[in-house]
Design brief:
Elements (H helix, E strand, L loop, with lengths): L1 H17 L4 H31 L6 H52 L3 H17 L3 H18 L7 E2 H18 L2 H4 L2 E6 L6 E2 L5 H11 L8 E8 L2 E9 L14 H12 L4 E7 L3 E9 L1
Parallel strand pairs: 2-4
Antiparallel strand pairs: 1-3, 4-5, 5-7, 6-7
Helix pairs in contact: 1-2, 1-3, 2-3, 3-9, 4-5, 5-6
Length: 294
């Protein structure tokens, strides 16, 4: 009877009524179940259990009080178990919704691009630049084509080879440097160290932090002093970025890229318990350190 009270409350009443915010109806049915179990248990004790296991007859009133107390404990444990189980289920649903939202956003962004038209146009521009002996423009178009191909096609995989992800980051940084003046480009330090062979990583988890550095770290009024380092030691991948700040605080732009907020959520979903993200911001600088166990 205790098991009936525990599991009927935890697995039937709480999911049906509490999850639907019908708390008053839940309380009614829970108390009705509790009262019925106390009554049935007391009746069973009086008719069968006491005569079998006890040497003297216990009054019905005493038996009811004992059952009220013991079943109250069972009901309390059942409520705790049921609510905890419901909370865990809700958290899993919320995480899945976030994951689905990010996937939908990515598919929406990709749907805005006609890949064949884009690549045909880039090939045409590349051929034109090559015929004109414009090596710099041809190199930019070639890198841009590689970036777009990676984003549209290869980043659909759950995981990609780490060397491909690093190549994507290298090309992104090089394109960013090419758009800057030589003086500003000299203020950017970019280092990559480690053995990337035979390792895999979830695609596009590092790029938001690098994009953020170039978006907010380029300062015309003073030295930018941008530093980006990527290091792989064993199975620990570390990305560290540092940059000076201008007069205005860095505000993550949710309309550009997936933003730092979404980057945090994506890391929580894809590397739960396997990453550490530290973001330190003060009046003059912005520092990010991300470590991922790959």
């Amino acid at each position: 009877m205790s098991m009936v009270l525990f599991y009927l409350n935890a697995l039937c009443l709480i999911p049906q009524f509490v999850s639907a915010q019908r708390n008053k109806i839940y309380i009614f049915w829970a108390m009705l179940l509790y009262t019925a179990i106390v009554f049935c248990n007391s009746l069973f004790d009086q008719l069968y259990s006491i005569s079998l296991f006890s040497t003297e007859k216990e009054p019905l009133k005493t038996d009811i009080i004992l059952n009220i107390q013991s079943k109250a404990v069972i009901l309390s444990l059942s409520i705790g178990y049921g609510l905890t189980k419901l909370w865990i289920q809700n958290q899993e649903i919320q995480q899945q919704l976030i994951k689905d939202k990010l996937s939908t956003q990515l598919r929406f962004l990709k749907a805005q691009i006609n890949p064949h038209f884009l690549f045909n146009t880039l090939n045409m521009a590349y051929s034109s630049a090559t015929k004109s002996n414009d090596v710099v423009t041809a190199d930019i178009i070639e890198k841009l084509s590689g970036l777009m191909r990676y984003v549209i096609y290869e980043s659909n995989e759950e995981k990609v080879l780490l060397e491909k992800e690093i190549q994507y980051l290298n090309d992104t940084v090089n394109l960013q440097l090419q758009r800057l003046s030589p003086e500003l480009a000299d203020q950017v330090s970019y280092t990559v160290e480690g053995d990337w062979q035979n390792n895999q990583v979830v695609p596009m988890v590092l790029i938001p932090f690098i994009e953020n550095v170039f978006k907010h770290g380029i300062i015309l009024s003073k030295r930018s002093n941008i530093s980006i380092s990527i290091l792989l030691r064993g199975n620990l991948l570390t990305l560290e970025t540092k940059n000076n700040k201008g007069n205005h605080p860095i505000i993550p732009d949710t309309n550009s890229g997936i933003g730092l907020k979404n980057a945090r959520e994506r890391l929580q979903l894809l590397y739960p318990g396997q990453h550490k993200l530290e973001i330190n911001e003060n009046a003059s600088s912005f520092h990010v350190k991300l470590q991922i166990e790959i």
